[in-house]
Amino acid sequence: MKTIEEAELCFPQLLNSSCRKTMHPHSVSMLTYIILSSISLLTVALNLLVIISISHFKQLHTPTNLLLLSLAVSDFFVGFLMLFQIVLIEGCWLLGDFMCAVYNILNYIVTSASIGTMVLISADRYVAICDPLHYPTKVTQKRVQMCVSLCWMCSIFCHSLLLKDNLEQPGRYNSCFGECVIIIDYVAGLVDLFLSFIGPVTVIVVLYMRVFVVAVSQARAMRSHIVAVQFSVKVTAKKSEMKAATTLGVVVVVFLVCVCPYFCVALTGQDTMLNASSAAFVISLFYFNSCLNPVIYAFFYPWFRKSIKLIVTLKILEADSCDSNIL
Q1: Is 167 in contact with 100 (CB distance < 8 Å)?
Q2: How far is CA 142 from CA 132, 145, 148, in A?
Q3: CA 327 – CA 320 distance, rounded (Å)
Q4: Which residues have CB under 8 Å from 114's CB, separation 6+?
């Protein structure tokens, strides 16, 4: 029989060096497990549908949708990483120091790639709305592929470099067995904060403010009675771009609301220290954003609803299904 003291330890066999569990009422723990597990499974499943839809159907192979694909991939990994967050509900990391370092580095990489993709989405909508005549020549499939690849490579390189000490000596900052802590020194933390949050968010806000101003001016022009027939045709052609800008604007706003608390926590410390257990709320809020993105697509994009129907009914397995008309 275990004593009460041993039952409260992450590793009962290590009485003098084990961390203590974070004790919660059984009902609270079960509710937390159910909620986080549900969000994790929904995030993985919904983003997998986005990935399959954009990858499979040729009509969806557009520069803008390629950016949505990149965002869905990062959101998919967020949903997968959330499973590790569930492990930390009781405050114990049971997967070893190396896996702790890998988990946190992947967290940083995915977060950075998501924000980088948001910047690219904002730039795409800026060009589409503010310079529509040159959009087809400026924003091509190859250029977007190159930008997305650079975004992911830079994220992987920068955070592998910033966190290499934690990866070379896993668990060096842990005070007891069962803890999962990584530390970035002050200067590196500031660089990461600027590159991963302050800089990108500033660019996103500035670009979307400009898009908003142009959208308002176009709406006024559409309501004007003194409009040439040629201009009316151009405005009609822009309606789809305006709708896309609105949808992606919602995605960006929701993203900022969910991710800002995560970085505000980083701003409060003298050293950027992330204890995965104590930061559960802000991390979970960031994870929840990844579940919301596909819901936003389903609400605004008819093509996503059509593609889900084809996927669920297994019609995508039919010959030439990739050429289906879903727009």
Answers
A1: no
A2: 19, 5, 10
A3: 16
A4: 71, 74, 75, 78, 255, 259, 290
* CATH number (domain holding residue 283): 1.20.1070.10
The total domain count for the chain is 1
> How many residues belong to the chain?
327
Other C-beta atoms lying within 10 Å of the C-beta of residue 269: 12
**Radius of gyration from C-alpha coordinates of the chain:** 23
Q: How far apart are CA 283 and CA 23, in angstroms?
A: 20
State if pTM tops 0.85. Answer: no
* Gap between the Cα atoms of 168 and 83, Å rounded: 24
Q: Which amino acid is at 216?
A: V
* DSSP 8-state symbol, 90: G
How many Cα neighbours within 13 Å face the side chain of 293?
A: 34
pLDDT in tens, the chain (327 residues): 455 455 577 777 777 777 777 776 777 777 778 878 888 898 899 899 989 989 888 888 888 889 989 989 998 998 888 888 777 777 788 788 888 888 888 888 888 888 888 889 888 888 888 888 888 888 889 999 999 999 999 999 888 888 877 777 777 777 778 778 777 777 777 777 788 778 888 888 888 888 777 776 766 665 564 444 444 444 444 555 566 566 667 777 777 777 777 667 656 554 444 444 445 566 667 777 788 878 887 677 788 888 888 888 888 888 787 888 787
What secondary structure letter does DSSP report for 316? Answer: G
Give per-residue burial for 290-324: e unless 16+ CB within 10 Å, then b.
Answer: bbbbbeebeebbebbebbbebbeeeebeeeeeeeb
Contact 247, 71 (CB under 8 A): no
Name the residue range of residue 316's domain.
4-323
